[in-house]
Amino acid sequence: MEITPSAHAAALWVGLHLILLLVLSVMVVRQRRKHQVVLGDADIPELARAVRAFGNAAEYIPGGLIAIAVLATLGAPPMVVHAVGLVLFVGRVAHAVGLSRSGGSSLLRSAGVIATWVAYILGAVALLFYAIP
Length: 133
Fold this sequence. Notes:
It is built from four helices and no strands. By secondary structure, it is mainly alpha-helical. The chain has a single domain, classed as Up-down Bundle (Four Helix Bundle (Hemerythrin (Met), subunit A)), CATH 1.20.120. It is elongated.
């Protein structure tokens, strides 16, 4: 079985997103230990932000990774896979950093949401394009 350049591209972005989820998870655990909270956020703003940063990433990343994997499976050019992966990754990092710093609106948080939506749009359009034989 030959591993295609698109599969290599997909592996890169899946791996990086998994590392991002792990980092965000560790941030939650650190806040829980610091504040001795086992469940919930105990109305502690730093813990609530860490939980939401992880939760938001966990909500958005899987859809993007599915798009990346399917694009690689369909033989989309590696550049398409990289475009979706990069925009999604930058968006998720920006959102997590923005949310971790402040529970309110922030430039990074807004940019992260926009980048994530752009990645979803890119992935959806590419999938629809490759769906037509």
